[in-house]
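Sanity check. The docking grid for NAP depends on where the pocket ends up, so I'm generating a full predicted complex first rather than guessing from homology. Inputs follow.
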Amino acid sequence: MGATANGSSAQPLSFLIYGRSGWIGGLLGKLCEAQSIQYAYGSGRLENRASLESDIASVRPTHVFNAAGVTGRPNVDWCESHKVETIRTNVAGTLTLADVCKQNNLVLINYATGCIFEYDEAHPLGSGIGFKEEDTPNFIGSFYSKTKAMVEDLLKNYDNVCTLRVRMPISSDLSNPRNFITKITRYEKVVNIPNSMTILDELLPISIEMAKRNLTGIWNFTNPGVVSHNEILEMYRDYIDPDFSWKNFTLEEQAKVIVAPRSNNELDATKLKQEFPELMPIKESLIHYVFSPNRKIPVA
Ligand SMILES: NC(=O)c1ccc[n+]([C@@H]2O[C@H](COP(=O)([O-])OP(=O)(O)OC[C@H]3O[C@@H](n4cnc5c(N)ncnc54)[C@H](OP(=O)(O)O)[C@@H]3O)[C@@H](O)[C@H]2O)c1
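Predicted complex below; grid placement will be based on this.
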């Protein structure tokens, strides 16, 4: 028998994961293998209720993980010109999966986004005052964020859903173009704003533990504190490439090269830190999980 079982049953853990071909979904499968957790990827499409019911009937999971969604390629600007496709997966699809899980008495761990807030008067940049789980989203500048905020609000009514507000995800795989570090090292110019971010190497295992504990509700799923673009690029220069240099530009200049505005914010990670006291502050986690293992420059 598995050490931890879902609620009332003593069934061994069995995870059903959506997002097989995606970044987060791919990493989740590897983590399950490393932890010898039984898992299967869902073959259904989120907006197709019958296909989800069929996955659940054949896999008989103890928990469902949703790492499926549209994020846009090359970036979220895609959602501005593909609104129906964005709604189909991120709104209709996510709600359908939550509802099917509810009917099957299953906890759904949902990788959502924290890009639904922006610094404001009550949470100014540099203040250390982050948005809390109960705060109402105040950023609807992009269609992607607007729909994610709507869905988060509706999902509050599902007591089986664990909403994880992921932000600017980073992993130790610096060759992955989705990695926030890889993205900003490849941009011609970058803004320089402190933000809350999610170190996947540290936090994805925590999300598995959250499933084992059957945690639900909204969670700011970021490392405590903030880090700026320049602070990350300085670490990149100091650990990976001594010749690396970059150019900054302002938010106004950035606005000219993107379609939709982007969110910048600090999320308050106190709730997650209380549940997982070992959670590292963002800059420590960056060094520990990303830059030290990838170090190219010998320690002086
Ligand atoms: N990456 C980020 O910057 C970021 C930041 C914050 C939050 N998140 C959230 O985290 C989640 C996962 O992100 P990710 O970066 O891993 O995404 P990703 O690499 O773009 O992968 C998305 C996955 O979703 C699947 N998918 C898309 N539409 C689907 C549908 N209708 N039914 C079933 N599967 C569908 C895709 O499969 P197909 O190729 O078969 O469509 C793919 O496997 C998303 O909801 C995203 O909003 C991401």
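Relevant for the grid: The pocket of NAP is lined by residues 18-25, 45-47, 67-71, 89, 93, 111, 113, 166-167, 169, 178 (CB under 6 Å).
Also worth noting: Residues 14-291 form a domain with the Rossmann fold fold (CATH 3.40.50.720).
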